[in-house]
Amino acid sequence: MSSLKMSASEIMSLLTETFPQQAKNFGIDELSETSLVVRHKIDDSHLRPGGTVSGPTMFSLADISLYILTMSRIGPVSLAVTTNCSLDFMRKPEAEVDLIAKTRLLKLGKNLCVGDVLIYSEGSTKPVARASMTYSIPPNS
Q1: 90-101 pLDDT tens trace
Q2: Full residue range of the structural domain in which residue 55 is found
Q3: CA 91: distance to chain centroid?
Q4: With a threshold of 0.90, does the pTM exceed it?
Q5: How far is it, in rounded angstroms, from Cα 12 to Cα 44?
Q6: How many domains does one find in the chain?
Q7: CATH number of the domain that 116 lies in?
């Protein structure tokens, strides 16, 4: 029996409703009970000088990835929030391609959801960034 409480399409509907300014940038490529692959559609608004994807764009991808994985397991809890993030930028991402985040659930407890995220330029096997993320789950969710 699956422990998923929301499907990829239900989560995308939630994102569109809750974060309409951002939802259009993301797509869910794969979703399972313990892992997720999210795509960030890159355009000129995500670039910084030097022809690379900006750090805030990569943080946004890591953050929304663990948010999606958390929602898939606990259901639509809008007040779940990021409580910790450690983000390592490892190499320059390609400016002309989407970013792909591979997210893994490490622990889902009553109050916290912990995961890690590897971010790749689409088509590359070498990660451009790595994030360790924690989400706080509000009581009675």
Answers
A1: 999 999 899 999
A2: 8-136
A3: 19
A4: yes
A5: 23
A6: 1
A7: 3.10.129.10
